[in-house]
Amino acid sequence: MKECMDRRDFVKGFGVGCAALLSGRVGFCRSPERRRPNIVYVLADDLGWSELGCYGNTFNETPNIDRLATQGMLFTDTYAAAPVCSPYRVALMTGQYPARVGITDYLRPNAEKHLPLKYITLAEALRSNGYATGIIGKWHLSGYKNHGSSEETLPDKHGFDEVIVSENRGIGGGSYFHPYHFNREIKKRLPGKEYLVDRCNLEAVEFIERHRDEPFFLYLSHYAVHTRLLGKDDLVAKYEKKAGAGKGPRAKKNNPHLAAQLESIDEGVGMIMKKLDKLGVADDTILIFTSDNGGEDRVTDNSPLRAGKSTLYEGGIRVPFIIRRAGRIKPGTRCDVPVSNYDYYPTLLDCVGIEPDRRQHFDGVSLRGLLEGADAKLDRKCLYWHYPLAKPHFLGGRSSGAIRMGDWKLIEYFDTGKVELYNLSSDPGEKNDLSGSEPGKAAELRKRLGDWRGTVLTPELMGNNS
Q: What sign has the CA pseudo-torsion 385, 391, 392, 394?
C-alpha cells in the first residue's frame, strides 16, 4: 500500500477544502455551528475487559482512559461480535453479524476472502455525508497481494480518504519498532527508535489538526496489545519494578510489556483529548475507546472472566467500551445493558443525524437512547455468535456458537454437539454449567441459536454449523 505522505503534503499545500473536493466529499464548507459532530474511534487490539483502571485493574496505569470514563459512559456488558480480529472489524464496518457477511475467523495473509465492496461501510456512509475519513493502523479485512492473494480490498476502497500506517502484509507476530514488517514502505518520522504506538498517536493528532474545520471520522486502530508483546524499554522497566509484576513478555498476570504498551495507548488518548480541547472541538466530538476481543490468556489474566481470546467464554468476547459526547452523555455514568459492536454503525449515524442508506442492512440497533439517559430498552432479546472452525484455534478456542438472552448464556460446541449453560448475573466467571439442572432453558436457548443461524448464514458456512 502507498504510504499517505503524498496526501498529507497535498492537504498542507492546498487546503482541506480542496482535498475534500478531490475525494468527492460534499458539505465541507458548512458553517461551524451547523456541522455534524466529529467521531474519533480508538480501538486497542486484544485488550481484555479487566485491563483498565476504570474496570478495576490496579497494576496497569491508564489515567487518560480512566478520565475519559469519568467524562462519559462506561459499558460493563459490551461484546465483540467474535473472539478474534477480522469478524469484529466486519461487524464494525457493516453493522452486521459476521456470519451474514461470511467472515467468521481472522483472515490469513494469503486469504482470497475479503470484505466485499458491495457493503456500504461506516466510513463510506460518513464520507458521503461530508466527513473527512481516515484510518490509522490496522485494517485486517483482506488478504494481501504481497502474500499471493489474487485480490485485496484495502481501506481506500472502503471509504477512507486517508490510510496511514496501515498494513499491506500480514500483521502477525508483532512489529513495534521501525522498520515495520507489515508495511516496509512506511518511512520513519520520529527520532530515535520509532515506536509504532507513538507513531500512530502522532498521526492521530495531526489528522485532527488537518481536519479541524470540517466534520471528520478518525479510526485509530492500534496494533497493540497484540502479541508478541513488546513495550518501550523505559516503560517496561517501570512496570518490572512494581509490586506483583510478572516476568517477561509472556507473564500471565501483571505483564510488564502489556502494561507498557497500554500506557503508550493511554498516552495517545490523552494527546487526542488535549488536541480536541485546544482546537475547541471537544464538545463537538464523539470519542470512543474499546477493544476488538478479549485478551490472550497466555499473556494476561482476564479474571474475573473465564478464558480469553479465541473462545466464546466471557474472557474472549466481553470488552471495555467507553464513549464521551458532551451535552448528550451524562459524565460518569455506567450502563449494564448487553450490547455488541455491530450496534456502533447505526448508533453513530443516529447520533450525528444521518439517515442510513436503505441498501444497507443492519443487524445492530442504535444505542442512542441508552447514551442520552432516556428510559430506553433495546428492541431485541438476544445477542448471537457464530464461530465455526475446521480445527481448534492455537489459543484453545473451539468450533462453537453462543447466545445471550438476559442473564442466560449458552455455548454450543459444533465439534461435540454438547452445550454449556450459565447464569451471568450469579456466575460471571462461568464456573457452574447449568445445562444439566436447567434442561428446559438450555433447550430453549439452543433452539433460538439454531433458528438464528438459519436466517443469517451464508451458503459457504451452512456446512459448518454443527
A: negative
Could you tell me if 122 and 133 are in contact, meaning their C-beta atoms sit under 8 angstroms apart? no
Rounded CA separation 348/362 (Å): 13
At 298 the three-state DSSP class reads: coil
Please give the single-letter amino acid code of residue 90: V
Q: How confident is the model at residue 463 (pLDDT cuts 50, 70, 90)?
A: low
> Cβ atoms within 10 A of the Cβ of 459, count?
7
192 in the same domain as 322 = yes
Quick check: 161 and 45 in contact, CB under 8 A?
Answer: no
Question: What is the Cα–Cα distance from 394 to 200, expressed in whole angstroms?
Answer: 29
Q: What is the DSSP letter of 315?
A: H
- Do 34 and 117 belong together in one domain? yes
Tell me how far the alpha carbon of residue 123 is from its chain's centroid.
14
Q: Is the pLDDT of residue 106 over 50?
A: yes
Burial level of 238, CB count in 10 A (0-12/13-18/19+)? Answer: middle
User: Computed from CA positions of residues 4, 8, 9, 13, in that sequence, does the dihedral angle turn out positive or negative?
Assistant: positive
Of 65, 259, 5, 47, residue with least CA distance to 138: 47
Which residues form the domain of 65? 5-380
Instruction: Quote the pTM value.
Output: 0.93
Reported as type and span, the H/E element at residue 162 is strand 162-164
How many whole angstroms separate alpha carbon 331 and alpha carbon 212?
24
Q: Around Cβ 31, how many Cβ atoms within 10 Å?
A: 6
What CATH number is attached to the domain comprising 218?
A: 3.40.720.10
* Predicted pLDDT at 461: 59
